[in-house]
Design a protein that fits this description.
Largest sheet: 4 strands, antiparallel
Radius of gyration: 18 Å
Strand order of the largest sheet: 2-3-1-4
Helix content: 25-40%
Structural class: alpha+beta
Length: about 120
C-alpha cells in the first residue's frame, strides 16, 4: 500500500468553505474514476493548516490517478481557490498495526478461567 500526505498552502479565510467543498467534490470524482484508491481524508491542524492523507493500492494507482482527466479537472478547480498547489510526500507502508477485531464490538473476547 502507498500513502501520500499532501500539505496545502494557507487557505484564505474567505475561501475555507469553498476549499472544503472542493475536497468533498474531488474525493467523489476520484472515487468514481480511480481503481485502487482506498481512502482520502482531509485533516486540519491546530494552526488551521490543511493536509490530505491518501491511501492507494500501489504506485501505479498513483500514476494512473495523476494522469487521469479527473485529476486535471481537480487541479484546475483548486487553482481557482489557492495560489499554489499542495506539496506531497509518498510513503510505502512497510508495517501495519491491526486495530479492528471481528467480535465483541472491537474488544478482545474474554477468556474463561479454568475451573
Amino acid at each position: 500500500m502507498l500513502v501520500v500526505i499532501a500539505r496545502f498552502p494557507a487557505v484564505p479565510a474567505d475561501k475555507d468553505e469553498e476549499f472544503r467543498d472542493w475536497f468533498t467534490w474531488s474525493t467523489a470524482l476520484l472515487r468514481d474514476t480511480v481503481t485502487g484508491l482506498r481512502e482520502r481524508r482531509l485533516l486540519r491542524g491546530d494552526d488551521g493548516s490543511y493536509a490530505a492523507v491518501v491511501e492507494l493500492e500501489d504506485s501505479s494507482t498513483l500514476t494512473a490517478m495523476h494522469s487521469s482527466e479527473a485529476a486535471a479537472q481537480i487541479h484546475e478547480r483548486l487553482a481557482e481557490i489557492l495560489d499554489e498547489g499542495p506539496r506531497a510526500t509518498r510513503y510505502e507502508v512497510v508495517a501495519q498495526l491491526a486495530t479492528q477485531h471481528t467480535c465483541c464490538g472491537g474488544h478482545r473476547p474474554a477468556v474463561a478461567a479454568d475451573a
